[in-house]
Design a protein that fits this description.
It is globular, with a radius of gyration of 18 Å. It starts with 10 loop residues before the first strand and ends in a 12-residue tail after the last strand. Helix 4 links the parallel strand 4 and strand 5. By secondary structure, the chain is of the alpha/beta class. A 7-stranded parallel beta sheet has the order 3-2-1-4-5-6-7, with helices on both faces. Helix 1 packs across helix 8, helix 3 runs parallel beside helix 4 and helix 4 runs parallel beside helix 5. The chain is 42% helix and 14% strand. The chain is built from 8 helices and 7 strands, in the order E-H-E-H-E-H-E-H-E-H-E-H-H-H-E. It binds NADP nicotinamide-adenine-dinucleotide phosphate and D-gluconic acid. The site of NADP nicotinamide-adenine-dinucleotide phosphate has 30 residues, from helix 1, strand 2 and helix 4.
Length: 264
């Protein structure tokens, strides 16, 4: 039974895994035996991440690659194949958010979020699926969101992208399940990373950010999640333990989606 969750000999590509959720997921997959490849756009992020992985005893391979650039992605996947082997596990983690009221958001700003958060996972999945078909197995994990199910003010582009990513997950499941490729999503709740730092900033008087208090009241676990909370679910969906789980979005949210919220 223990081997069900092992990833020895597997090659995992985690996009955007220089820090935050991607870094924690890559660390988890490495702890289960996977060889780790990751990418990001900024060289200084890459260099620091390589040092951080080494500090944890992980010899990760890092690539400067923008997930929205199909040529860069195809070249990166080919280089991973040469250096580590064909990708067995893909985690589409790279993503951004822009918090702007929709009527004030430019088309370019909306498009940038869609390109990175939805088109990027399409481009990277398209690049690795042929190798997975050739191998006769594959795991694709798309990092969705509460916004795959819910909306809120100022995140129209992000919610549109993450809602689309939920359906891309189900479509990859539908189209490639017969090749023993499982495509599932992880839907994190509110996780303490650089992406959500603005929502947790202390106020001038030292009090908690109103959104911080709001999320704690909306979460049965009464806390923000940490990237480490996603490690076990990622190992599960990357391993043989989930070979008959397909097209599923696993929400790792401390119960937010089940809860009306604490009475003020
Ligand atoms: P983060 O701290 O902002 O990290 C994002 C990572 O993605 C960085 O390494 C960034 O590095 C990379 N990246 C951004 N755009 C990229 C691109 N075009 N190509 C390649 N790499 C790119 O974000 P996070 O909070 O860890 O979130 C990671 C994922 O989880 C995102 O998809 C996010 O939407 C999702 N998520 C987050 C939360 C949360 O509460 N934090 C909850 C649910 C879902 P570079 O800037 O160097 O490229
Ligand atoms: C926001 C947050 C959320 C989280 C996450 C929740 O502004 O509402 O950034 O979108 O990032 O996606 O699951």
């Amino acid at each position: 039974m223990n081997n069900l969750f092992r990833l020895d000999g597997k090659v995992a590509l985690v996009t955007g895994a220089a820090y935050g959720i991607g870094f924690a997921i890559a660390e988890a997959l490495a702890s289960a035996g996977a060889k780790i490849a990751f990418n990001c756009r900024e060289e200084h992020h890459l260099e620091k991440a390589l040092a951080d992985y080494r500090a944890k005893g992980i010899e990760a391979r890092g690539y400067l690659c923008d997930v929205t650039d199909e040529e860069q992605v195809q070249a990166m996947v080919a280089q991973i194949r040469e250096e580590l082997g064909a990708v067995d596990i893909l985690v589409n983690n790279a993503g951004i958010i822009k918090r702007i009221p929709m009527h004030e958001m430019s088309r370019e700003e909306f498009q940038q979020v869609i390109d990175i958060d939805l088109v990027g996972p399409f481009i990277v999945s398209k690049a690795v699926i042929p190798g997975m078909i050739e191998k006769g197995h594959g795991k694709i994990i798309n990092i969705c969101s509460m916004m795959s199910e819910l909306g809120r003010e100022t995140v129209s582009a992000y919610a549109s992208a993450k809602g689309g990513l939920k359906m891309l997950t189900r479509n990859i499941c539908s189209e490639y399940g017969e090749h023993n490729i499982q495509c599932n999503g992880i839907g994190p709740g509110y996780i303490a990373t650089p992406q959500t730092a603005p929502l947790r900033e202390r106020q001038a008087d030292g009090s908690r950010h109103p959104f911080d208090s709001f999320i704690v009241a909306k979460t049965p676990a009464a806390r923000w999640g940490t990237p480490e909370d996603l490690m076990g679910p990622a190992i599960f969906l990357a391993s043989e333990a989930s070979n008959f789980v397909n097209g599923h979005i696993l929400y790792v949210d401390g119960g937010i989606l089940a809860y009306i919220g604490k009475q003020p």
